[in-house]
Design goal:
Elements (H helix, E strand, L loop, with lengths): L12 E6 L16 E2 L3 E16 L9 E15 L4 H8 L2 E5 L8 E5 L9 E8 L6 E11 L15 E7 L14 E4 L6
Antiparallel strand pairs: 1-2, 1-7, 3-4, 4-9, 5-6, 7-8, 8-9, 8-10
Length: about 190
Protein backbone atom coordinates (compact mmCIF):
# COMPACT_ATOMS: atom_id res chain seq x y z
CA UNK A 1 0.00 0.00 0.00
CA UNK A 2 1.36 3.40 -0.97
CA UNK A 3 2.32 5.97 1.59
CA UNK A 4 1.12 9.60 1.31
CA UNK A 5 4.64 10.86 0.57
CA UNK A 6 4.84 8.61 -2.50
CA UNK A 7 2.22 10.85 -4.14
CA UNK A 8 4.39 13.77 -5.14
CA UNK A 9 2.52 17.07 -5.24
CA UNK A 10 3.72 20.61 -5.58
CA UNK A 11 6.81 21.76 -7.37
CA UNK A 12 10.35 22.59 -6.47
CA UNK A 13 12.88 25.21 -7.41
CA UNK A 14 15.17 25.34 -10.45
CA UNK A 15 18.74 26.51 -9.98
CA UNK A 16 21.43 27.08 -12.59
CA UNK A 17 25.20 27.35 -12.34
CA UNK A 18 28.16 27.22 -14.72
CA UNK A 19 28.55 23.88 -16.50
CA UNK A 20 30.29 21.27 -14.36
CA UNK A 21 29.43 22.92 -11.03
CA UNK A 22 29.45 20.53 -8.08
CA UNK A 23 26.13 19.01 -7.05
CA UNK A 24 24.92 20.58 -3.77
CA UNK A 25 24.50 18.38 -0.71
CA UNK A 26 20.89 17.17 -0.71
CA UNK A 27 20.10 18.46 2.79
CA UNK A 28 21.73 21.89 2.39
CA UNK A 29 20.44 24.96 0.58
CA UNK A 30 22.29 25.51 -2.71
CA UNK A 31 24.94 28.23 -2.45
CA UNK A 32 27.09 30.08 -4.99
CA UNK A 33 27.56 29.51 -7.85
CA UNK A 34 23.99 28.11 -7.87
CA UNK A 35 21.34 30.77 -8.60
CA UNK A 36 17.58 30.26 -8.24
CA UNK A 37 15.46 30.92 -11.32
CA UNK A 38 12.57 31.94 -9.06
CA UNK A 39 8.98 30.81 -9.14
CA UNK A 40 7.43 28.84 -12.00
CA UNK A 41 4.00 28.64 -13.60
CA UNK A 42 2.30 25.36 -14.64
CA UNK A 43 4.88 23.06 -13.04
CA UNK A 44 8.26 21.66 -14.03
CA UNK A 45 8.64 18.79 -16.50
CA UNK A 46 11.66 16.47 -16.31
CA UNK A 47 11.85 14.17 -19.32
CA UNK A 48 14.23 11.25 -19.96
CA UNK A 49 14.26 10.72 -23.72
CA UNK A 50 15.45 7.79 -25.79
CA UNK A 51 15.29 6.23 -29.23
CA UNK A 52 15.00 2.43 -29.28
CA UNK A 53 15.53 0.31 -32.40
CA UNK A 54 14.26 -3.27 -32.60
CA UNK A 55 15.30 -5.99 -35.01
CA UNK A 56 13.58 -9.11 -36.30
CA UNK A 57 14.18 -11.58 -39.12
CA UNK A 58 12.18 -13.00 -41.99
CA UNK A 59 11.94 -16.30 -40.14
CA UNK A 60 10.42 -14.89 -36.92
CA UNK A 61 7.32 -12.90 -36.06
CA UNK A 62 8.75 -11.40 -32.91
CA UNK A 63 11.58 -9.02 -32.20
CA UNK A 64 15.01 -10.60 -31.61
CA UNK A 65 17.15 -7.68 -30.49
CA UNK A 66 16.81 -4.17 -29.14
CA UNK A 67 19.35 -1.35 -28.89
CA UNK A 68 19.25 2.23 -27.68
CA UNK A 69 20.54 4.55 -30.39
CA UNK A 70 20.01 7.85 -28.58
CA UNK A 71 19.21 9.08 -25.09
CA UNK A 72 18.82 12.42 -23.46
CA UNK A 73 17.31 14.43 -20.67
CA UNK A 74 15.23 17.60 -20.76
CA UNK A 75 13.80 19.97 -18.17
CA UNK A 76 11.00 22.40 -19.05
CA UNK A 77 9.24 25.13 -17.09
CA UNK A 78 7.81 28.61 -17.38
CA UNK A 79 9.57 31.15 -15.19
CA UNK A 80 7.27 33.74 -13.61
CA UNK A 81 9.96 36.20 -12.59
CA UNK A 82 10.51 38.31 -15.68
CA UNK A 83 13.93 39.64 -14.71
CA UNK A 84 16.66 40.29 -17.23
CA UNK A 85 18.81 37.88 -15.20
CA UNK A 86 16.34 35.07 -15.97
CA UNK A 87 15.92 36.10 -19.59
CA UNK A 88 19.67 36.34 -20.22
CA UNK A 89 20.06 32.65 -19.38
CA UNK A 90 17.46 31.64 -21.98
CA UNK A 91 18.82 33.76 -24.82
CA UNK A 92 22.56 33.49 -24.09
CA UNK A 93 22.88 37.25 -24.04
CA UNK A 94 24.59 39.71 -21.74
CA UNK A 95 23.10 42.02 -19.10
CA UNK A 96 24.82 45.39 -18.80
CA UNK A 97 24.17 47.39 -15.62
CA UNK A 98 24.45 51.18 -15.47
CA UNK A 99 24.65 52.55 -11.93
CA UNK A 100 22.59 55.60 -11.04
CA UNK A 101 24.57 58.78 -10.61
CA UNK A 102 24.35 62.53 -11.02
CA UNK A 103 22.00 63.02 -13.98
CA UNK A 104 22.16 59.30 -14.88
CA UNK A 105 19.37 56.82 -14.20
CA UNK A 106 20.22 53.33 -13.00
CA UNK A 107 19.29 50.71 -15.56
CA UNK A 108 19.95 47.22 -16.86
CA UNK A 109 20.03 46.36 -20.54
CA UNK A 110 20.02 42.95 -22.22
CA UNK A 111 21.99 42.57 -25.42
CA UNK A 112 19.95 40.06 -27.44
CA UNK A 113 22.49 38.89 -30.03
CA UNK A 114 24.14 35.70 -28.80
CA UNK A 115 26.49 34.72 -31.64
CA UNK A 116 27.60 31.20 -32.54
CA UNK A 117 28.85 30.06 -29.13
CA UNK A 118 26.19 28.49 -26.87
CA UNK A 119 26.60 28.93 -23.13
CA UNK A 120 26.52 25.70 -21.14
CA UNK A 121 25.05 25.38 -17.65
CA UNK A 122 24.52 22.89 -14.86
CA UNK A 123 20.93 22.55 -13.65
CA UNK A 124 19.47 21.54 -10.30
CA UNK A 125 15.78 20.91 -9.66
CA UNK A 126 15.15 20.65 -5.92
CA UNK A 127 11.78 19.29 -4.86
CA UNK A 128 10.31 16.67 -2.56
CA UNK A 129 11.26 13.07 -1.79
CA UNK A 130 8.71 10.27 -2.19
CA UNK A 131 10.13 8.67 0.98
CA UNK A 132 9.03 11.16 3.63
CA UNK A 133 9.07 14.86 4.43
CA UNK A 134 12.53 15.17 2.90
CA UNK A 135 14.13 16.80 -0.15
CA UNK A 136 14.78 15.22 -3.51
CA UNK A 137 16.74 16.65 -6.44
CA UNK A 138 17.69 16.22 -10.07
CA UNK A 139 21.25 17.31 -10.82
CA UNK A 140 22.41 17.69 -14.44
CA UNK A 141 26.08 18.70 -14.70
CA UNK A 142 26.08 19.90 -18.31
CA UNK A 143 23.55 21.20 -20.80
CA UNK A 144 22.18 24.23 -22.61
CA UNK A 145 19.01 26.28 -22.93
CA UNK A 146 17.11 25.39 -26.08
CA UNK A 147 13.95 26.51 -27.85
CA UNK A 148 12.76 29.87 -29.03
CA UNK A 149 11.95 32.41 -26.34
CA UNK A 150 8.52 33.89 -26.87
CA UNK A 151 6.90 36.16 -24.32
CA UNK A 152 3.32 37.38 -24.43
CA UNK A 153 2.45 40.66 -22.73
CA UNK A 154 -1.27 40.76 -21.85
CA UNK A 155 -3.15 42.92 -19.39
CA UNK A 156 -4.72 39.97 -17.57
CA UNK A 157 -1.89 37.40 -17.55
CA UNK A 158 1.62 36.99 -16.18
CA UNK A 159 4.37 37.30 -18.79
CA UNK A 160 6.38 34.09 -18.59
CA UNK A 161 9.91 33.18 -19.65
CA UNK A 162 10.01 29.67 -21.14
CA UNK A 163 12.86 27.43 -19.98
CA UNK A 164 13.89 24.33 -21.92
CA UNK A 165 17.14 22.76 -20.75
CA UNK A 166 18.71 19.97 -22.84
CA UNK A 167 21.33 17.83 -21.12
CA UNK A 168 24.67 17.14 -22.76
CA UNK A 169 26.77 14.15 -21.78
CA UNK A 170 29.31 15.05 -19.13
CA UNK A 171 32.35 13.32 -20.60
CA UNK A 172 34.29 14.06 -17.37
CA UNK A 173 31.80 12.11 -15.21
CA UNK A 174 33.22 9.47 -12.87
CA UNK A 175 31.22 6.72 -14.61
CA UNK A 176 29.19 6.39 -17.79
CA UNK A 177 26.02 6.15 -15.66
CA UNK A 178 26.76 9.65 -14.25
CA UNK A 179 26.94 11.41 -17.64
CA UNK A 180 23.44 12.94 -17.39
CA UNK A 181 23.67 13.51 -13.66
CA UNK A 182 21.80 12.05 -10.74
CA UNK A 183 18.37 11.90 -9.16
CA UNK A 184 18.59 11.53 -5.40
CA UNK A 185 15.98 11.52 -2.66
CA UNK A 186 16.44 11.51 1.08
CA UNK A 187 14.91 8.43 2.75
CA UNK A 188 15.69 8.96 6.47
CA UNK A 189 17.33 11.36 8.92
CA UNK A 190 20.93 10.83 9.99
CA UNK A 191 21.43 8.79 13.14
Amino acid sequence: MGLPYELLTGVGTIYIAPSGSTMPVLTAAPTAPWVSCGETDDGVKVRKTQNIETFSSDQRTGKKKVIRTEEGMEVEANLQEGTLENLVTMVNGTVVTTAAGAGVIGKKALKMHAGAEVTEYALLFRGKSPYGNFPGQYYVPRGFMDDDVEQEYKKDEVTLIPLKFIALEDLNAATEADRFGTVECQTAVAS
